[in-house]
Backbone:
């Protein structure tokens, strides 16, 4: 089965899922996702913020279960509808920055990416 290219908000980090970096970056990611949703709703294009997706890896040839969680690397993703553009995301970043001054750097770490999946089962 082929899955079409998707648009995502994405942020990368390193460490355990319960760690501070994971939690703060997750908060920044969701803040931006809801910021984009609010902007689009004002334009009459409301949508639901979908479930979080994640990609995980380790910088080692060892099996991941042999690597401490603090060394795990990850990319957190929230898929966006086709009508959300990079311009909308940048506008949403500014809105979030104006509201949540403490998360300025983290919100700026969130990228708008297009990802093409390979064949899936």
Residues:
């Amino acid at each position: 089965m082929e899955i079409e290219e998707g648009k995502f908000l994405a942020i990368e980090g390193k460490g355990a899922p319960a760690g501070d970096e994971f939690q703060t970056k997750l908060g920044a990611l969701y803040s931006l996702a809801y910021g984009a949703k609010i902007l689009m709703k004002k334009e009459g294009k409301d949508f639901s913020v979908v479930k979080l997706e994640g990609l995980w890896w380790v910088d080692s040839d060892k099996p991941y279960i042999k690597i401490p969680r603090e060394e795990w690397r990850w990319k957190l993703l929230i898929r966006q509808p086709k009508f959300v553009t990079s311009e909308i995301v940048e506008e949403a970043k500014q809105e979030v920055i104006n509201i949540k001054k403490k998360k300025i750097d983290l919100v700026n770490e969130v990228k708008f990416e297009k990802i093409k999946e390979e064949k899936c089962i």
